[in-house]
Design goal:
One of its GO terms (molecular function) is oxidoreductase activity, acting on paired donors, with incorporation or reduction of molecular oxygen. InterPro entries: Bact_Lucif_Oxidored, Luciferase-like_dom, Luciferase-like_sf. Pfam families: Bac_luciferase (PF00296). The chain is an alpha/beta fold. It has a single domain, classed as Alpha-Beta Barrel (TIM Barrel), CATH 3.20.20. Helix content is 44%, strand content 14%. Strands 1, 2, 3, 4, 5, 8, 9, 10, 11 and 12 form a ten-stranded parallel β-sheet that branches. It has a two-stranded antiparallel sheet with strand order 6-7.
Length: 367
């Protein structure tokens, strides 16, 4: 089994996880999609993958899990090994007391397998559904995160800004992991990287077809670990774990099949369906730039999609890891109209043939 995200030997070996939106599948109900995903998680739980990351979205077919905590509570009962990470909880959309209590429940239900992704939210259209604007979500995130972290560490919640004469509120369901579960922050914004390195978050930088070029990933990885080391020497890594080197990784859509030809034939129609789900809100609001069609062949050439035989995909992963200087790869195996058995086979082939083939790849991230 791969080392857990944040493991002290992260700079020597690459870790692998699953990333998921649980987007709509043509002709299937939400309940049927949930069952398919739980079956996929049971397969991934057999080994090879450290963490299952689940996104939070609202009002879009891209995200059939608007409450990641609810789905992950079900996943906690279906699995025993793989760690579970909402990636992210969109912090500004929550009451912080309710959020820290739900985090405590998830960590207890999973037997201490929870990892916590946090963020401001990437969609202004989704923020607007909650009466918020991007500046407002940024302010709220910065105001709430210190109180959330303090509550996880101390077992008592103090509402930011004061609340009359109310004192700290004891959490009767604290987190199981101490001082707190590992924290993740996904982003496609290079301007966020210095801060995230200083704070010690685990990071997923770039998401498939919205990922920056490899040279930018490498540049930001070096900057991230430079800032992390400097903050560590000063003893100022607030959101990391003591003595732990964080993960700095990327996310890719993946199809593995016995041959390159079969993998590409499966990829193209399913990715078109997924792209429609992904761009739904942008198209709805007339954002032509973000919703424009993508060139699958170009994405493959740029290493922003992984598809092919196990040998081909192993080469794609090796290139991404070594050239990007990352120590984590989050793979999305189920999306769009990919059949559940196709996703299951991809997970099996990736675990059994791809991961062993790339284990010897030198990872310089964090070194």
């Amino acid at each position: 089994m791969s080392p857990q995200p944040g493991a002290p030997d992260a700079q020597q070996d690459v870790g692998f996880g699953l990333f998921d939106w649980i987007d709509a599948a043509p002709g299937k109900t939400a309940g049927e999609v949930y069952e398919d995903r739980l079956a996929l998680l049971r397969e991934a739980d057999r080994g090879g993958f450290a963490t299952y990351h689940l996104a939070e979205h609202h009002g879009t077919p891209l995200g059939l899990a608007p409450s990641p905590a609810v789905f992950l509570a079900a996943a906690a009962r279906e699995t025993t090994r793989i760690r579970l990470a909402p990636t992210t909880f969109i912090v500004p959309l929550y009451d912080p007391l309710r959020l820290v209590q739900e985090i405590g429940m998830l960590d207890q239900l999973s037997g201490g397998r929870l990892e916590i992704g946090v963020g401001k939210g990437s969609s202004p259209h989704e923020a607007a559904m909650f009466g918020l604007t991007p500046p407002g979500t940024a302010e709220r995130f910065e105001a709430l995160m210190p109180a959330i972290l303090e509550a996880l560490e101390t077992g008592a919640f103090r509402r930011p800004g004061g609340n009359g004469d109310a004192g700290p509120i004891p959490l009767h369901v604290p987190v199981r992991q101490r001082p707190h579960p590992p924290l993740w922050y996904p982003t496609s914004n290079p301007a966020s990287i210095p801060r995230l390195g200083e704070q010690g978050y685990n990071v997923i930088f770039g998401f498939g077809f919205f990922s920056p070029p490899t040279d930018v990933v490498r540049e930001q990885s070096r900057l991230f670990f430079e800032r992390f080391r400097a903050a560590s020497e000063r003893g100022e890594v607030r959101y990391g774990l003591p003595g732990v080197t964080p993960r700095f990784g990327l996310m890719r859509h993946v199809v593995v099949a016995p041959t390159d030809e079969e993998a590409l034939a499966l990829l193209r129609p399913a990715f078109a369906d997924h792209h429609r789900n992904f761009t739904h809100l942008w198209r709805l609001h007339g954002d032509e730039q973000r919703s424009r069609p993508v060139d699958v062949d170009q994405l493959l050439a740029e290493g922003k999609l992984f598809a092919g035989s196990p040998e081909t995909v192993a080469g794609q992963v090796s290139d991404a890891v070594s050239l990007g200087e990352v120590n984590y790869v989050a793979c999305s195996f189920a999306w769009g109209s990919l059949a559940p058995e196709t996703a299951q086979r991809s997970v099996q082939l990736f675990r059994d043939e791809v991961i062993p083939a790339v284990r010897g790849v030198a990872v310089s991230a964090g070194g």
